[in-house]
Design brief:
With about 140 residues, this protein is α+β, with helices and mostly antiparallel strands. The protein is built from two helices and nine strands, in the order αββββββαβββ. Strand 3 and strand 4 form a beta hairpin. This is DUF306 domain-containing protein.
Length: about 140
């Protein structure tokens, strides 16, 4: 009798486990219509952060397009962002390939190489060949 009750309880437990609804997939935080200000960057070879000399602006126009204001130029393009924080630049266009200062050029290199976007409320970090620090506007 005890064996029958044990087997029945085990079967009920397995049935209850199998009937649980699937967990919802993690929600991707939308970047659409958000603006960020670059506060600084850290290159892979540097030991200290370089603070931003001016207020460079990064705007996510939709969940797949961006605009990064440099000194004299604007970098636009497409990106992909995953629920795990993965980030990838898919395509870029730049108004001209001249006239930006060294800071803006280094920032552009880090941005284009980004593979991870860590968002913490109003401050975030784009990580690739260095780190780009952002503050939500």
């Amino acid at each position: 009798m005890t064996k029958k009750i044990t087997v029945a309880l085990l079967a009920l437990g397995l049935l209850a486990y199998a009937c649980q609804p699937d967990q919802d997939p993690p929600q991707i935080q939308s970047l659409a219509h958000t603006e960020w200000e670059v506060t600084g960057y850290l290159t892979a070879s540097a030991s200290a952060m370089h603070s931003s000399p001016i207020r460079y602006k990064l705007a996510f126009l939709s969940d797949s397009t961006f605009l990064l204001k440099l000194d004299a130029n604007v970098l636009t393009g497409k990106f992909a962002y995953g629920s795990d924080g993965s980030f990838q630049i898919l395509e870029t266009k730049k108004t001209k390939d001249c006239c930006d200062n060294e800071y803006a050029l280094e920032m552009e290199v880090i941005f284009k190489s980004a593979t991870e976007f860590i968002i913490r409320q109003d401050r975030s970090t784009l990580m690739g060949d260095g780190e780009l620090y952002l503050r939500r506007k």
